[in-house]
Amino acid sequence: MACICCVPDKNENELQFSSGLGETHHQNIVKQEPALFGGVARTGQAFEVEYDFTGGTQNLDLTLDTTDGKFILIAVVGTQPHLNGKALKRFDAIVAVNGEAASRVNLSMENLNGKKVKMSIFRPAEREVILRRPGKLGITAHYRKSSIASWIASMSEPGLVYEWNSANPDKSVALFDRLISVNGDSGTPEEVVAMMKSENDLILKVLHYAEDSH
Fold first, then answer.
1. Coil, strand or helix: which one is 110?
2. Model pTM?
3. pLDDT tens digits, 5-18
């Protein structure tokens, strides 16, 4: 049996939203950036992995984050039986299952059990975005309580992020990219968004999911 868990929310419609400035308390913030992919992935990587579930009861131990409504991201990687291909990592996006667009249905253990499964994976690029104040960021960030990271939900012109993209097309960020840390500090999605409200210059670590040529 293949077991894959989607990260639940107490209220599936309860979308957390942040904009503007405000006071915050940075409790339980990790005072060091997490080592995601070794800090070397400048462009996204598309690849495939294969699993064989035809040999009896097995367990594919993945916890998934589907909270942004666009990507199915890997939140937790557990035991990976009979894997042929690269090892999966946190924040990898599952794009397709046996040639069909990935969904909760075709990633369910009922669908995977007894089959050979080929998953198309997209590993995001790590991008560092440097924003010089003063000025408005020009983005909104959304997250749910169970999201592994907040994401860029909208981007407007004028704005510091839009200006960064225009000046640095090879390091641009896009909608649904995940916000990982601010000035070297990471934390919960709520804490990361709160740190972005600072009036100081910002260095953002962002995971970029667009499959582009940069």
1. helix
2. 0.80
3. 444 454 433 344 44
